[in-house]
Each structure stands twice: as structure tokens, then as C-alpha cells.
Automatic annotation (TrEMBL):
Native organism: Amborella trichopoda
Similarity field: Belongs to the disease resistance NB-LRR family.
Keywords annotated in UniProt: ATP-binding, Nucleotide-binding, Plant defense, Repeat
Name recorded for this polypeptide: Uncharacterized protein
GO molecular function: ADP binding; ATP binding
Length: 683
């Protein structure tokens, strides 16, 4: 009996620390029960607040610990005795004690964490907060864009969507409609709207996203990690509005959407380049309003005054100057609201055409925002190329090759070795301007671009305020007489491009131009003569070498012109690289006046384009650098000069099959040499 008593004393000594640990566990289990905290949170929610994500995570872990503590206690009660309850189960009790010690430590740590948790926050919107939108909603073009984007939200293969278009076209308004649309809630727990703008601040963006996800992290070093973890658990739509450069999603802590997490990121930007750098899965361009849609919006802003018989014709012209751009239509429409004075409308039309920004709101609400696009262009060189486009008349369709050549002649392309190099470099810049929504691709063809009316006004305004401007903008003003010399000032001395195309200047007695005797054109590189219907001669032929830098010569629609160059003028054109002669119905020779046996050479000529020269009989004899000839329009040209077979750089002869088959050859060698270079042009 004494032995039994001694054993029990030893067992009790052994069990005492175990029992003590279980006692602590019981007390901690009571502490981890959370009805009081939950009651406080419920009261907070009734006051318009909501539990934070941190609070929810703390509650979830507390419930887990509560359940685990119950399991330890239950196992202890189930296994504390053995032999029918006559003897303590020492191994089991020892194990329970160790489990109790471990669980006690976990519970204590978790209770202490409660002091660091941010329990409540302003209640976030259930999905996305409804925001006010502009009045272009309901237009068919607008509705089509909204429908297309909503369809993308249900396509799991499309994670990142780029909405692009020029400034003021309505990209943000489209996305506001998406944000407000009841149908946008396709299982998404959050729609998060972030306006990025030009000043990209990663920390600000992170904090805005976290706030809308119901998170609060004091340690900024942990923001990206915590944000990444939380955003993976919630299916979200992240709208990044007004993006100007690539945004590093990893740096923010936002996971890239994929078919597994089914999240979406939608960006709005003025630049297609930004869409590409963000690796968008789909790009949607927001275009200007159709004519009927523009009129509906304009009438809504200016009201019924635009329907008055005396006002409507002018109002239509005013609206046309807005070019379907919603931002401009809204600003101008509001400025002209209820104004029934014809003279006021006429003055507004003048102000728009002259890009003076006199109309109330145009400077602040249209010019300043659109100038951001100009400021964000890559460098000063491409900005100059953009401003140059304002020299073309309003609504003018500009041929890409022609534009590149003009940029070259103005020195805007930097160092180029040939006209072809200039075209290649120029086309690259044109694509950048298109991608930045500064110029537009003409829809029916890939060869032409144009400047939107409002963007052109912005360009003219920028150009007019720059010091030392290099452009005289008279395009589209319907000139009927040449500018006076004093209006040019010293511009002639530096003139590189001279183009009188499309003007109404009339010189009915003009028989010859005589540009070779004008000393002030020594810097001229690009010369375009067009629609000089009565001019018989371009050159006087006895002047000094004043066109030594001429590289490109374009002559078109000069019906009575008999030749392009005189033999003694050719030597004055050592840099001429390209000639394009088109629709000169009376032209018979490219070069005339040479002596028999005289070697007349155009040493740098690389490209010769002949189109619609029905009476043409001969072309230049010697052009050793010639690379390409293009002949269209069934000329009377029956022989190609023998010198062509010596042109080692010649790679292409284009023409109609009928013309080629009608050619006469002085020898078979010339025929066999040139035949592989011929490519038929379909009529």
C-alpha cells in the first residue's frame, strides 16, 4: 500500500506541470474567444464602416486556434486515464502537455497581435463605386465601345486590355460607363479605379489599391508582398486611367491576369506604344464621333439656338472645326450656349479657323490637355516633325513618302545618306506619331496620313509661340498672289522646301520660272512645281550655280512644259537624287539642248518616276547611281538609253507590260541586261 502511495505521489509530481499547462490553455482559450470583438465590429459596420482585410484574417486565425485548443483539451479528457480509470495515462498526458505548451505560445502571440491590427475602415464599394459620366453616353459609337469592353471582361483569355485614342476622344468616359454598368459585375469582387496621369508614383498607386482592397500595411517594404498576396485572393478589375508610360505591375504588387485568377487590367492611354509596352492582349481604339452623333452632342450643349435658320449654316461650320472630338464639341457648345447673334457665331468660326483659342474654355480645357501629348513626344526632333505637319492645309491628305522627303530637306531627320534612307527613317517617325495619336492614318489607304483639325490648331498655336520658329504657315488660306518679299524676310536664305501646290496664285503671262538665277535659293533641297499650266520653261539656263543643294524635284500638271532640264543646267545639280515628273501632257524630253557626243550626267540620281507623260520620247542618258525607274501612262518612249546597262546600282524597272513589249533595242546585250529587272505594273 505504501508502494502504491509512493507511485501515485511520483505520478502527481509528474502530472503537475502538465495540469498547469492545460490550465493556462483553458484560460487562453477563453481569451481567444471573440464575441466581444465581433460585437464591436458589428457596431462599427452599422455606423457605415467595414472590417478591414487584416481584421478578417485575425478573426479567421483566432477561430482556427480556438478549434485547435478544443481538440487538445478533448484529447486530454479522452486519454488521461488507463486501466479502466484506475491509473493516469502518463504517456498520453505528457503528449497533451507538450501540445498545450505549444498551443499556449501560439495563442499568446496571436492575442498580442490584436494590438497592431487596424480593425475598421471606410466601407469600400461592393464592386465599383458609381461615378458621374459625360453626356456622350448613348451615342452608337460610344455604346459599341462599351459593349466590346464588357464582352472582353467575360473572356478569360484576355487579361490586359488597352483602350487608346487621341486626347479628348472619350476614353475615360467609356471606362466610367464600364465602372457604372450593372452588367460589369461578372463575379468580380472589386473594381479598382486608379488615375495614373503623367506623374507615376508607385507608392501612391499601391496605397490607393490597398485602400480599395480593405488593407492597411504600415511597413512600406512589405506593401508589394502583402498586396500581391491579397490581390491573388480577390478577383478584381483594375482600371488604370490616363497612362503615359509602362507601369511595372510587379513593383506595385499586382499579379498579371491569367485564365486561373480571372482578373482584368484595363488601361486608357493616348499612345499605342504604351499599350504595346504593357503587353496588352487586346487593343481597342476609341475614335471621334460620327457626324450625326457630333451634331446631337453639339445641339445638347449649345441648345436649340443651333437650329435657327440664320445660325444653323454657321453652326455646322463651327462643328466641323471640332472634328468630331467630344472634348472640343462640349467646350465650344457650352461657350455658344443660347447665343443667337450671327456675328458672335461668325467670330467663333474665325477664332477656330485661326487657332487663336479665343473661345471661352478652349485654352484651359482643350489646348492645355492636348498639348500634353506634344510634350510627351520622345524628343525635340519628333516634335519638330509634328509641327511641320501643320504647314499642310486643313483636311489635307499627306503622302507619307512626300512628308518624309520634306522632313529630310528641312534637316529634321538628321544625317541620312540617300532619299531612300530618309523615307525609311521618316516612315518610322510617322508610325510613332500615329501611335501617339498626333496624326491619323487615312482609312482607305496605307499611303496617306492627315492631321485632325483640332490637333492642327494645337500645332499652329505651339508653333506660333515658339521663339525662332522656322515655318511660315499660310496653308489652306487660299492664296491668290505670292507673298511680298518683305514678308519672307531672310527666310529665303535658309529655304529648303518650296511648295506652291494648291494655291490660287495666277500669273497668266508667266512663260518661264528661271529658278536657276535666284541666288537666295542656294539652300533649296526640295522643289515642287505644280499646276503651272502656261509655263514653257523652268530654267533660264545661263545663271550661276545657285541650286547646288537641290536633292528632290517634283513637277506635275505643267501641261505645256516641253522639257525638265537643260543640258547646261544639269551640271548645276550635282546633288539631285530623285525626280518625279507627272501628268505633264506636253513633255517630250527630260533633258534637252545637249550637243552630239556630249556626256550629260546626273551623278547622284537614284530614282526616276515618270507618270502620265504621253508625249515623252527620251530620258537622261547617263545616271550611274540610278537604282529605280518607274514608267506609267503609255508614253512614246520607245528606247531606253544604252547607258542604263552600265548603271551598276539599277535594281528595278517598273512599267506597263504593253509599254515594255513595245520597246526597241539597239542591241541584244542591253535587252538581256535589263529584262530581269522589269516588273509589270498593273493598269
Amino acid at each position: 500500500m505504501e508502494i502504491a502511495t509512493g507511485v501515485l505521489q511520483i505520478v502527481n509530481i509528474f502530472l503537475e506541470p502538465i495540469t498547469r499547462q492545460l490550465g493556462y490553455l483553458f484560460k487562453c482559450r477563453e481569451k481567444v474567444q471573440i464575441p466581444d470583438l465581433e460585437a464591436n465590429i458589428e457596431a462599427t459596420e452599422r455606423s457605415g464602416k467595414a472590417a478591414t482585410g487584416e481584421a478578417q484574417q485575425w478573426f479567421n486565425r483566432a477561430r482556427e486556434l480556438e478549434h485547435e485548443a478544443d481538440e487538445v483539451v478533448e484529447r486530454y479528457h479522452d486519454n488521461k486515464c488507463c486501466f479502466g480509470g484506475l491509473c493516469p495515462n502518463c504517456p498520453s498526458n505528457y503528449k497533451s502537455g507538450r501540445q498545450a505548451t505549444k498551443k499556449l505560445s501560439q495563442i499568446t502571440t496571436h492575442i498580442n497581435l490584436a494590438n497592431t491590427v487596424n480593425w475598421s475602415m471606410d466601407r469600400p464599394p461592393p464592386v465599383g463605386r458609381e461615378m458621374p459620366t459625360a453626356s456622350i453616353t448613348g451615342q452608337s459609337t460610344f455604346d459599341k465601345n462599351v459593349t466590346k469592353i464588357l464582352e472582353c471582361l467575360s473572356n478569360n483569355e484576355l487579361g490586359v486590355i488597352g483602350i487608346h485614342g487621341m486626347g479628348g476622344v472619350g476614353k475615360t468616359t467609356v471606362m466610367l460607363e464600364i465602372n457604372n454598368s450593372p452588367s460589369q459585375n461578372q463575379g468580380f469582387k472589386r473594381v479598382i479605379w486608379i488615375t495614373v496621369s503623367t506623374d507615376v508614383n508607385i507608392t501612391r498607386i499601391q496605397k490607393e489599391v490597398m485602400k480599395k482592397l480593405g488593407m492597411n500595411v504600415e511597413d512600406e517594404d512589405m506593401i508589394a508582398e502583402r498586396l500581391f498576396s491579397a490581390s491573388k485572393e480577390q478577383r478584381f478589375v483594375l482600371i488604370l486611367d490616363d497612362l503615359w508610360e509602362k507601369l511595372d505591375l510587379n513593383a506595385i504588387g499586382v499579379p498579371r491576369p491569367n485564365p486561373q485568377n480571372k482578373c482584368k487590367i484595363i488601361i486608357t492611354t493616348r499612345s499605342l506604344i504604351v499599350c504595346n509596352r504593357m503587353e496588352t492582349d487586346l487593343k481597342i481604339k476609341v475614335d471621334v464621333l460620327l457626324e450625326e452623333e457630333a451634331w446631337i452632342l453639339f445641339r445638347e450643349k449649345a441648345r436649340n439656338v443651333v437650329g435657327l435658320p440664320s445660325i444653323e449654316p454657321i453652326a455646322c461650320k463651327v462643328l466641323k472645326e471640332c472634328g468630331g472630338l467630344p472634348l472640343a464639341i462640349i467646350v465650344v457648345g457650352c461657350a455658344m450656349r443660347d447665343k443667337d447673334n450671327v456675328h458672335v457665331w461668325e467670330n467663333a468660326l474665325r477664332a477656330l479657323r485661326e487657332a487663336t483659342m479665343e473661345i471661352e474654355g478652349m485654352e484651359r480645357e482643350v489646348f492645355v490637355p492636348l498639348k500634353y501629348s506634344y510634350d510627351e513626344l520622345q524628343d525635340e526632333n519628333i516634335r519638330q516633325c509634328f509641327l511641320y505637319c501643320s504647314l499642310f492645309p486643313e483636311d489635307c491628305e499627306i503622302e507619307k513618302d512626300n512628308l518624309a522627303e520634306r522632313w529630310m530637306c528641312e534637316g529634321l531627320l538628321g544625317r541620312v545618306d540617300s532619299v531612300e534612307d530618309a523615307r525609311n527613317k521618316g516612315h518610322g517617325l510617322i508610325e510613332k506619331l500615329i501611335d501617339s495619336c498626333m496624326i491619323e492614318q487615312v482609312r482607305r489607304t496605307d499611303y496617306f496620313v492627315k492631321l485632325h483639325d483640332v490637333i492642327r490648331d494645337v500645332a499652329i498655336r505651339i508653333g506660333s509661340t515658339r521663339e525662332g520658329g522656322g515655318f511660315i504657315v499660310e496653308a489652306g488660306l487660299g492664296l491668290k498672289e505670292a507673298l511680298r518679299v518683305e514678308e519672307w524676310g531672310e527666310a529665303q536664305q535658309a529655304l529648303k522646301v518650296l511648295d506652291l501646290h494648291g494655291t490660287g496664285i495666277k500669273c497668266s503671262q508667266l512663260d518661264f520660272v528661271g529658278l536657276d538665277v535666284v541666288p537666295s535659293l542656294k539652300s533649296l533641297e526640295f522643289l515642287c512645281l505644280s499646276n503651272l499650266r502656261v509655263v514653257r520653261r523652268i530654267w533660264k539656263g545661263d545663271g550661276d550655280h545657285h541650286l547646288l543643294n537641290l536633292r528632290f524635284l517634283l513637277i506635275e500638271d505643267c501641261d505645256v512644259l516641253k522639257n525638265v532640264l537643260l543640258a547646261n543646267v544639269v551640271q548645276c545639280l550635282p546633288c539631285l537624287e530623285e525626280m518625279a515628273i507627272m501628268r505633264c501632257r506636253g513633255l517630250e524630253e527630260i533633258i534637252s539642248g545637249g550637243q552630239v557626243g556630249q556626256n550629260i550626267t546626273l551623278p547622284e540620281l537614284k530614282k526616276l518616276q515618270l507618270n502620265g507623260l504621253v508625249k515623252l520620247k527620251s530620258i537622261c542618258e547617263n545616271a550611274p547611281s540610278l537604282e529605280r525607274i518607274s514608267v506609267r501612262g503609255y508614253p512614246k518612249l520607245r528606247r531606253l538609253p544604252q547607258g542604263l546597262r552600265e548603271a551598276e546600282m539599277l535594281r528595278l524597272i517598273e512599267g506597263e507590260k504593253e509599254w515594255w513589249e513595245g520597246l526597241e533595242w539597239e542591241d541584244e546585250r542591253t535587252n538581256s541586261t535589263l529584262l530581269p529587272l522589269f516588273v509589270e505594273i498593273k493598269s
